């Protein structure tokens, strides 16, 4: 006999999944702050976050929600596209209401009150708010100001969260274009003469400013922006790495090329990178999985930091 999910279980599932869009809007929130804002205990919040790490459409790493919940803050690494609160479209709501109304007339229903209550809630929502399927809401979030800036060729002031440095700060940029890659939307822009890319879902606020975009920012053939290589990987520096055999899955998430060569049992790999600081942060975050062979100065920097960390505990 199939066991039916209780309303409480369904409510808990919706509450858990809605944590992800909340975290996109509050990237620096701690579990204590989340509990205060959403009205349930911090232990329940942490439990929901830990369950999310094991959720997804499949079993492979790229099919699972990935986040790092800590008491000091929560970092969303891969949201699997769940970046908006769960809601029904008008078509879905009508279809569900028709099903519930047919169930209301069925004799012998186990929990008739639950069906009646759910149907009434949908009727109330649909009577208060009507949205045609042919209508589209205004461009949400940062995309509205970005679109205006591109059409008017004006500068933008962004409040941007960087996942690599785990910081949020203001950036003044010259927008160049928008592109999509691997399910994410990116803004191509020039900041202080350097081409940069910004994930749109990490832009907390975008404000138009009066300054015009310099012509050099988007001139065809310009050295600061290349539409064929928006991430700048073509001109990036390349590091030689050693990857632990059990951590080759890192190549599924970063642009790491694995080679057949082995070095003391570890897999030799190469990886393009933009800045030394980024490579150092990346390797420190994967300290037990990744070892830098070249550039030498990065390997020496990592060794020095490791030695300093050990001395603190000596």
Automatic annotation (TrEMBL):
Residues 142-206 form the WYL domain. InterPro entries: CBASS_pafABC_assoc_protein (IPR051534), PafC-like (IPR028349), PafC_HTH (IPR043839), WCX_dom (IPR057727), WYL_dom (IPR026881). Signal peptide: none annotated. The lineage of its organism: Bacteria, Bacillati, Actinomycetota, Actinomycetes, Mycobacteriales. This is WYL domain-containing protein. Pfam families: HTH_PafC, WCX, WYL. Residues 12-123 form the PafC HTH domain. Residues 239-310 form the WCX domain. PROSITE patterns: WYL. It comes from the Bacteria.
């Amino acid at each position: 006999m199939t066991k039916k999910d209780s309303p409480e279980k369904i409510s808990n599932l919706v509450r858990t999944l809605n944590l992800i869009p909340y975290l996109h809007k509050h990237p620096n929130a701690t579990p204590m702050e989340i509990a205060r804002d959403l009205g349930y205990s911090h232990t329940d919040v942490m439990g929901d976050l830990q369950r999310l790490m094991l959720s997804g459409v499949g079993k492979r790493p790229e099919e699972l929600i990935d986040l790092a919940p800590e008491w000091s803050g929560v970092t969303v690494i891969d949201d699997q596209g769940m970046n908006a609160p769960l809601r029904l479209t008008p078509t879905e709501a009508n279809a569900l209401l028709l099903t519930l109304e047919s169930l209301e007339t069925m004799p012998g229903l186990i929990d008739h009150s639950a069906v009646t209550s759910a149907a009434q809630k949908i009727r109330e929502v649909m009577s208060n708010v009507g949205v045609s399927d042919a209508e589209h809401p205004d461009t949400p979030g940062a995309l509205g100001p970005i679109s205006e800036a591109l059409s008017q060729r004006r500068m933008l002031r962004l409040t941007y969260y960087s996942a690599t440095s785990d910081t949020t700060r203001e950036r003044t940029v010259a927008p160049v274009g928008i592109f999509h890659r691997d399910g994410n939307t990116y803004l191509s822009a020039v900041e202080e003469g350097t081409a940069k890319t910004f994930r749109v879902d990490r832009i907390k606020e975008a404000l138009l400013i009066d300054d015009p975009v310099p012509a050099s920012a988007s001139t065809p053939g310009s050295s600061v922006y290349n539409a064929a290589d928006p991430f700048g990987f073509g001109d990036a520096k390349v590091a030689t790495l050693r990857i632990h055999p059990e951590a080759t899955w890192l190549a599924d998430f970063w642009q790491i090329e694995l080679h057949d060569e082995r070095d003391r049992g570890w897999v030799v790999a190469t990886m393009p990178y933009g800045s030394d600081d980024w490579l150092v942060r990346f390797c420190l975050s994967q300290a037990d999985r990744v070892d830098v062979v070249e550039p030498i100065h990065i390997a020496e920097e990592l060794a020095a930091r490791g030695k300093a960390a050990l001395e603190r505990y000596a």
